[in-house]
Amino acid sequence: MAKKPKKQQAGGTPATVALTAAGTAFTVHAYDHDPASPSYGEEAAEALGVSPDRVFKTLVADVDGALTVAVVPVAGSLDLKALASAVGGKRAAMADPAAAERTTGYVRGGISPLGQRKRLRTVLDTSAGVHTTICVSAGRRGLEVELAATDLAALTGATFAEIARRN
């Protein structure tokens, strides 16, 4: 049974504060997060009634010793080799979760590409460009922000590259 989304006012997380300060158009979607859910992204897509191709997860990887953010659709998975190539690196691996949380200022499952404690190099999968808007974490579990992919790229300094494998 899908969870009913709750509307929430803008503000409250570093991600939404950054969006508001930039004057970017966005919509916040809140839902009741189930701690037992096996996939934060799939849970968000189902709760919001949005295709998993339009909901993007924020992953932190280590590319040649530098933490790098990858934003890919929850319907797919991150291609680490493609991510390394996209940033001119040789080798990529998923970052240590504690390092990702410490560096971004967010908890796992709630890491947003926006408003991070330390701005990290960011790559957005090219599939984001086929949608008018996409959803990404707004900075905590159970909270998503919907915005144009081009706005997300502009605010994070992201580059677009094919970094997702389609499942």
Task: Explain the overall architecture.
This protein is an alpha+beta fold and 167 residues long. The protein is built from five helices and eleven strands. Strands 6-3-4-7-10 form a five-stranded mixed β-sheet. Strands 1-2-9-8 form a four-stranded antiparallel β-sheet. A two-stranded antiparallel sheet has the order 5-11. A hairpin with a 2-residue loop joins strand 8 and strand 9. The longest helix has 9 residues. The chain starts with 5 loop residues before the first strand and ends with a strand. The N terminus is likely disordered.
What layout of secondary structure does this protein have?
Layout: E1 6-7, H1 14-22, E2 27-30, H2 40-48, E3 56-63, E4 66-73, E5 76-78, H3 80-86, E6 92-94, H4 97-104, E7 121-125, E8 134-140, E9 143-147, H5 149-156, E10 159-161, E11 164-166
Parallel strand pairs: 4-7, 7-10
Antiparallel strand pairs: 1-2, 2-9, 3-4, 3-6, 5-11, 8-9
Short description:
The protein has 167 residues and is an alpha+beta fold. Helices cover 25% and strands 31% of the residues.
State the separation between the terminal residues, measured CA to CA.
23 Å
Q: If you average the pLDDT, what whole number results?
A: 91
- Secondary-structure-derived class: alpha+beta
Estimate the global geometry from the Cα principal axes. Answer: globular
In what order do the strands lie side by side in the largest sheet? 6-3-4-7-10
Report the portion of residues in β strands.
25-35%
Note the main sheet: 5 strands, mixed
Low-confidence stretches: 1-11
Radius of gyration: 15 Å
Q: How many individual helices?
A: 5
Helix content: 10-25%
How many strands in all? 11
| Element-by-element helix/strand order | EHEHEEEHEHEEEHEE
